């Protein structure tokens, strides 16, 4: 995607996602409108089942909305062919999943380099960039380890390095600190924050108000709808002191167990 685009990196417009039909229909998201600009990190909070993970899946083109539009750098995802959508996901969007999604047969370095190699970059160049990305998340020298030889935290940081490698303009992180201790979590969020400060757009799903405080603004979901927001116009950064109270108002319990979002 062209980096000259000056509008929002991602825009969710009147987004609704429903599953099932008739009386069995369940609406995971209803009428969501959200824009994230270059250089901006937006946190999404809400109780289990509020639609957080569904929102990320739609924003990243992993799922299609029932109605509404997802627009990435001016391109409507619904208008792309399957091949074009797959290429956009591979080159422009970085994903961090709760369960890592690493390939067991590949080393950490190979996992991180894979998106670049799939896009045609020479293996040697891709591996060098992968080493740099691993160093950025504190895993320098561990590129030859296989996922089974790494701790949960190391695997998650490998997944984050893969999401940040290359020129990804949009980074989507679903509870990226879930398997990490507090110190490592802070380090990972600093990396994510730095990438956004360098021009990427990010959406961070978290149930921890202290981690949401790294974002420029925080959006709260409940029953698939936006029920509140802090930060944004007139308040450039969410205030850590406000976050717990705002989260409680939206029905988010501190330390809530991760579930379907």
From TrEMBL:
InterPro entries the UniProt entry points to: AAA+_ATPase, ABC_transporter-like_ATP-bd, ABC_transpr_LolD-like, MacB-like_ATP-bd, P-loop_NTPase
Record key words, sorted: ATP-binding, Nucleotide-binding, Transport
MF GO annotations: ATP binding; ATP hydrolysis activity; transmembrane transporter activity
Cited SUPFAM superfamilies: P-loop containing nucleoside triphosphate hydrolases
Statement: the UniProt record of this protein carries the keyword NADP: no
ABC transporter domain span: 10-248
Source organism, top-level taxon: Bacteria
Biased composition (Low complexity): 239-261
Spans annotated as Disordered: 232-261
UniProt cross-references to Gene3D superfamilies, sorted A to Z: P-loop containing nucleotide triphosphate hydrolases (3.40.50.300)
Cellular component terms (Gene Ontology): membrane protein complex; plasma membrane
Name of the featured protein: ABC transporter ATP-binding protein
Organism: Actinospica durhamensis
């Amino acid at each position: 995607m062209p980096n000259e685009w000056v509008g929002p990196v991602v825009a969710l417009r009147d987004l609704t996602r429903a599953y099932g039909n008739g009386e069995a229909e369940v609406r995971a998201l209803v009428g969501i409108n959200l824009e994230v600009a270059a250089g901006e990190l937006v946190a999404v909070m809400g109780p289990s089942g509020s639609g957080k993970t569904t929102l990320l899946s739609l924003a990243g083109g992993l799922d299609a909305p029932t109605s509404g539009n997802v627009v990435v750098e001016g391109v409507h995802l619904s208008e792309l062919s399957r091949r074009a959508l797959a290429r956009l996901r591979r080159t422009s969007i970085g994903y961090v999943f709760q369960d890592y999604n690493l390939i067991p047969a590949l080393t950490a370095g190979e996992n991180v380099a894979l998106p670049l190699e799939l896009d045609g970059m020479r293996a040697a160049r891709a591996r060098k960039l992968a080493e740099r990305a691993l160093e950025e998340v504190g895993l320098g020298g561990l590129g030859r380890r296989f996922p089974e030889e790494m701790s949960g935290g190391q695997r998650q940081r490998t997944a984050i390095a893969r999401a940040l490698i290359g020129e990804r303009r949009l980074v989507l992180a679903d509870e990226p600190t879930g398997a990490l201790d507090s110190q490592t979590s802070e380090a990972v969020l600093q990396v994510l924050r730095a990438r956004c400060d360098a021009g990427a757009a990010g959406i961070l799903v978290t149930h921890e108000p202290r981690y949401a405080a790294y974002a420029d603004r925080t959006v709260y979901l409940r029953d698939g709808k936006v029920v509140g927001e802090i930060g944004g116009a007139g308040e450039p950064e969410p205030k850590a002191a406000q976050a717990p109270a705002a989260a409680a108002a939206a029905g988010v319990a501190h330390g809530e167990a991760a579930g379907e979002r």
